[in-house]
Amino acid sequence: MCVCAKDRNRRCNRRLSEIESQNVVNKKINNKTEPFKLPPIVNDGFQFNQRKIEQKMARKVNKHSRTIWSWLVGSYLILQLIGSSFASQALLFTLEPQDAVVPEGHSVLLQCSGSASVGRGGKGKAGSPTPVSIRWRGPDGQDLVIVGDTFRTQLKNGSLYISSVEENRGLTGAYQCLLSAEGVGSVLSRPALVAIARQPDLNQDFLETYLLPGQTAYFRCMLGEANWQEGVKHSVQWFKDDLPLVVDKLRMVVLPNGALEIDEVGPSDRGSYQCNVTSGSASRLSSKTNLNIKKSAELGAENAVAPSFLVGPSPKTVREGDTVTLDCVANGVPKPQIKWLRNGMDLDLNDLDSRFSIIGTGSLQISSAEDIDSGNYQCRASNTVDSLDAQATVQVQEPPKFIKAPKDTTAHEKDEPELKCDIWGKPKPTIRWLKNGDLITPNDYMQLVDGHNLKILGLLNSDAGMFQCVGTNAAGSVHAAARLRVVPQGDSPEQDPSAPHPGSKVLDSGLQARLPSQPRDLVAQIVKSRFVTLSWVEPLQNAGDVVYYTVYYKMNNSEREQKMVTKSHDDQQVNIQSLLPGRTYQFRVEANTNFGSGASSSPLEVSTQPEVNIAGPPRNFEGYARSHKEIYVKWGEPAVTNGEILKYRVYYSENDSGADLYHDSTALDALLTELRPHTDYVISVVPFNRNGMGDPSAEIRVKTFSSTPSEPPNNVTLEVTSSSSITVHWEPPAEEDRNGQITGYKIRYRKLKDAPQVKSTPANIRYFELSSLDRNAEYQVKIAAMTVNGSGPFTEWYRVNTLENDLDETQVPGKPIWINIHPGATNIALHWGPPQQPEIKIRNYVLGWGRGIPDENIIELKETERYHILKNLEANMEYVVSLRARNVKGDGPPIYDNIKTRDEEPVDAPTPLEVPVGLRAITMSSSSIVVYWIDTMLNKNQHVTDNRHYTVSYGITGSNRYRYHNTSDLNCMINDLRPNTQYEFAVKVVKGRRESSWSMSVLNSTYQNVPVTPPREVTVRLDELNPPTVIVQWIPPKHTVGQITGYNIYYTTDTTKRDRDWAMEAFAGEETMLMLSNLKPYTTYYFKVQARTTKGNNNAPFSALVSYTTSAAVIMQEADTIAKGIDNEKLLYIIIAATAVVLLVVLLGILMLCRRKPQSSPEHTKKSYQKNNVGVPKPPDLWIHHDQMELKNIDKGLHTVTPVCSDGASSSGALTLPRSVVHSEYEVETPVPGHVTNSLDKRSYVPGYMTTSMNGTMERPQYPRTQYSHQNRSHMTMEAGLSQQSLTQPQSNSMAQTPEHPYGGYDANFCNASNGAAGNGCVSTIESSKRGHPLKSFSVPGPPPTGGATPINKHTAPAVTIRPQNQSPYKKPSFSAATPNRLQGGGSVVHSTDEIQRLAPSTSTEELNQEMANLEGLMKDLSAITANEFEC
């Protein structure tokens, strides 16, 4: 057996290298089978017996150790054989270089050798040896040029010899051996580190230490343990007063880091201490530290002092199997006790198999560290004054190990082979791939799958070679190689590609005839920036034999052709993804049968769409916590910027489901503040250029530091357990108030007016007993939670009195006085009262139960419990329950009760909930998307009536972080999304405890946050032609996404106002100039411009702020004037006065005309007709029954626009209004002389009125809205109760005369003002425009009436045709809108010919009164017209 030297860098003889691994196994087994040792026994009389017991146990262990050793060695050899099968046999190392740490000037030999074999047969067949060549790569990663190198020489066997390792000559660093074989490839060895041995830093601070007798002294020696070189051994010797120190093993210990610890110091320990460190042949001395011993009287023994640490543990990062030492030394008065905790829980140091031990007074040593030993370790020093924690983190790293190593692979050209490699380690290894010793950078054709497998697209013959998978972490590295062989299409993968082959196999004529022809009509259905959808038609020949299709595609000017295979012959459409934007690709299709591939289609060239030139992801993104509230992150500039980077946005959120927050930065770093302590944050950074948001970086997770708890423990209760003890119960603080991992609890208690004392507990304890208290005394107790950062706030003082006398335990407790039982189907709830003897001590209660008999099952309950539930019982079963109290004397008498559980209610199988369907996501803005769906379990109106709700899951596409939104509607808006980011949505229905599966997911992307850059070069100047006006001009934005639809111009005199409080002028179009008036003189205005695009102007940037001060020329613009000095107010008074004069003249004219009227009139017209004359029958309503009448006196002029005024034969109520012109099934074409009319509406109409019969509900036919070519079309009816404001809204009435609008040209004035139009009942064009054009309203069907029934004018005169409005459009109706509709009162009424005849004029006074009432309405009409500044 080979015996290795102690130095870790030395190896056994090369000839025994095959069994070196067995020696390692033997060493491990020997370590594990050490003889058991009992804890040392103080009494010397027992030493001999102890030795005998140890020897006996050792013999027992050794008896079985040989069998275990044989089994382990056999298993190891099998694993070695299995592991070696994973490695490629084509080219492998037999010896690799190892690390070397030597003193400066010493030589180093790096050995390397290997072998190669080229297989000539199929898989698994042996190959012939092949010569190999060896080259070396230096620390710079380049091949070494040995010729002319003074220090480095390559030996004949391939080893590298360095004659003298010297500093600053480029000789130190990592060396690698490159092994190559002709026709196979090259592989690279593990890196061998060559370094110069250095001595550690020593303590050089001169210190004076003062201690009390009995305390502990600690002297440092070597510093910077984390930076010590591996493989360098240091020996430490201590000196006292320049003489070698005689180490007293009972009180003194030299720790692994060289420090000296002396316990129970006394006057004899006074002196000067220093250490001497020897590394190899070099030695160094540290500085001296003087130890002084105080007298006890100097401090006063009665004065207690809280603990303080001389040294605390420091963080350790070690490899698996190493030994870890955590130093901890503390002093205090009284002397503190040292306790170790891991993650807040006590460490069990008394276990025989424990790998934890205490060295010195309190330092913790972990031998053979394992992964489970990683965690936070707390050293707790406590005495009666206080307790103090010191914390350190231990991380145990494990070197990389192969889970799956790559294997030799043979593939055809144009295939897509995937080399698999999976490596495990801690921390997670970084996996890299090498080809023939060169690093592979992932690209379009060589891609990393799942972060560890290598996939090659469009395989070429040049891709053949040796591929290596290398895994590296801080604990080490591992690598494995595999050979990739590429054979032409049609060759067998078992055939050696190096052997000559005849070429492609030629099919005979019979098989050739059965091959399909080329697929037809290859077209690109969809072309996007990163994918193309192709479709084709099956071949003309032998289409039925097609099994599948193969689509080949490549980028122009590239030889690497990739392929995609369809699943069946029915798939004649494929989606080619992972394309590059703005590139041209060639596509072709072949049909494949069982006999071979058919002819290829003609190549189709398709150019993908270009993408917006956004920035790529930032590089080297990393971050770390600076405090419990701050995280610092930094990154590098993106490799692709596409212009200037305007800013970076750092997104961060708590855990995976927290809300997205962000921080903007213009630098390459950022400090995130106001964070939560001890919280994981998911962070990424996104660049922004002028085109908007770029690609985000990879997400990182950073955890803030912990802090002290912000709240005390909850639910604190005190229980008096005896005359000298109190038990404290509590619950930990809420999760959000802990601010870190709770490491324990600190309890302070005091007797009234005494100094407080302190007790500490581990974190996993919820109660603690304070003992050794005075009887019948009042105590105060408070408690605080602790983390590694310290103690949180204490609770208030709780008060409690100890008992005067201890409870009696000389007799058993009595029987519980009562018990109540409430049965269920599978459980029983019990409630009881304590025994009647309160002076007898109760330790706990014993509860028993059984089926038909008691105490089949027994549990113990606390003495404070009064309620318990027995669960998991059988339904409809008789149970006997017993309960008794117990103390140290024994069990008291039990109380029994019988109870029967209930029948188990049948559980109805719940109806499964169906998955929502039809999920759609509609983008609303750059930060919101609306999602809606259909629930097939609801009725057709999709109205939720039960207690179901819906959960919407959404997250960024490709991320495993999802958020959830609950809603009771069938739609919801998801807000606070990232701009220009694709999200994935799914929904499920939840009802009670039931829920459906998730629906199919949908994808959609938010809009760009900034669709346009700001307008540029904004200027403001005075308009020289119009001094009261300023002109604002600008240049359009440089970049925009979407077409510019207009601009918003903001201006103000106060820049502190919010944007929405600024004055704004908006206009549509692409003009870049605006004229502003009404500005104050001698005032400074501020202007900024914002562009609007087709994607909206939300968050669109403003231009730079421009100021302009008005001068005296810019005055307040006065009201518009007419003529000289006549403004609108004066004009209004003139119009009112003129109107009054005109009305007076009209009144006089009417009186004159009435005196000249003939006296003959029909009999029924001579009857008086006055307002509110109920006894007089009213004439028929000709508007209601117009379908039964024939209107005469129609002007046949088609284009006549001459006004037709009254002929002076007007009589009270005998005013004829024009009929409405609507579509009908028939037309009335009775001509009427143009001069015979008594109409208030003096308009000319085209001949041929079109009428329709009105039904009882006065409803028009329903016409689709698509028939209207004009928005503001007047209705034939008017809703009763419409306000004047609603009736005076402007209506567009200027329409050209077209076939669609035959009456569009009738917008002239239909009233002759010179003939007293107003006085003769003329309706001006202004009123006509308010109602809409008369012909336009009636000739083209309008939408159906939306209001109530059309009111009927109470001034209706005999034999009239009323206009659509009930009265003046500016007058409110004289009756409520709830007045019953006369049209709904019954069917049509047939009138006699006399009733239909036109009424002759009358000169009665009553009729004159009626005429005056109508004139009064006209006066109000004209007043309203004048007030609105209309012209007649």
Task: Explain the overall architecture.
The protein is mainly β and 1432 residues long. The protein has 11 helices and 92 strands. The strands form 25 sheets. Strands 13, 16, 17, 20, 21 and 22 form a 6-stranded mixed sheet that branches. Strands 24, 27, 28, 31, 32 and 35 form a 6-stranded mixed sheet that branches. Strands 2, 6, 9, 10 and 11 form a 5-stranded mixed sheet that branches. It is extended and about 145 Å long. The chain starts with 19 loop residues before the first helix and ends in a 5-residue tail after the last helix. The model is unreliable at 1-70, 72-85, 120-126, 497-505, 1114-1125 and 1159-1403 (pLDDT under 50).
Residue share in β-strands? 25-35%
Alpha plus pi helix count: 11
Estimated structural class:
mainly beta
Overall form: extended
Q: Low-confidence runs (pLDDT<50, min 5 residues)?
A: 1-70, 72-85, 120-126, 497-505, 1114-1125, 1159-1403
| Largest sheet report | 6 strands, mixed
Helical percent range? under 10%
For this structure, the quaternary state is: single chain
* N- to C-terminal distance: 126 Å
Estimate the mean pLDDT confidence. 75
What is the number of E strands?
A: 92
